[in-house]
Design brief:
mainly alpha
């Protein structure tokens, strides 16, 4: 069973390889904040879930697929959609009217 620290380090290493359209994001220079945020999430997961995710990261990495790049690409896609007030896509309307939790 992998430790939470091993899982966070695996993610951090992949996060360091993420390149956005404008180059390296400033948050990629803040390991302490990254660790705190990921620790808060991973401590809510049971051992089997953390191990499964670690295996997913490892398997994807072995075929040249960075899951953190995938994650942030998806996040930025939605950020771009939501930040454009002229966007009339159904996804924008749904998310704009959704309550904050």
């Amino acid at each position: 069973m992998r430790s939470v620290a091993e899982l966070i380090l695996k993610e951090w290493n992949q996060f360091q390889q993420v390149r956005n359209e404008g180059g390296r994001a400033s948050c990629q220079n803040h390991m302490k904040e990254f660790v705190m945020n990921r620790l808060a999430q991973f401590l809510t997961w049971d051992d089997a879930m953390r191990e499964s995710y670690y295996e997913d990261l490892t398997e994807a990495e072995s075929v040249g697929w960075n899951l953190l790049t995938e994650k942030y690409a998806r996040m930025m896609r939605w950020t771009r959609l939501l930040s454009n007030p002229r966007n009339n896509s159904p996804a924008f309307v749904i998310h704009r009217s959704a309550p904050c939790i």
